[in-house]
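User: I'm curious whether this sequence folds into something compact or stays loose and floppy. Could you predict its structure so I can see for myself?
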Amino acid sequence: MRPLRHRYPFPLLAEELAVPIMNPEEILAEKIVAWWLFGHAKHYNDIAFLGLLLAATKQHQDPAVRRRVRGVLEKKLSINAEVSDRQRPRVEALIPAERKRRLTDPDRHVDPSKSFDTLSFLLGARPSMTNTRKSVDRYIVPLLFD
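Assistant: Here's the prediction. I'll summarize afterward.
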């Protein structure tokens, strides 16, 4: 639990709150599963950002981190498969080659209604796909597939 912090110049709540925070490895697994299943560009960008954070601390090279992220990914996928009959076929379609393709070829997987162009409202311009892909290719793909 951590104190809620926000960047708004006004109070959001009448009192300070402590909120639960996910472990960064679990956040990464959550974002990857969401990207694989739904193709929302915001998740791919979050994956790239988390890859840069892992790289900054060299955690992307740590075998224990690799093992934990892969384990949490599998757990989250199995839970998604159990949630509904609609989710099960989506999870079952995620053979290793398809998982990797969805990370290395994001334009082919992105949901058109949740595309990379829809992210421009956050920054005034679309995030650089060169940098985003470089982060995913350099830090996330080896973490999951090597």
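Summary: Helices lie at 24-38, 41-56, 63-83, 87-92, 96-104, 106-109, 120-123, 129-145. Strands lie at 2-3, 18-19.
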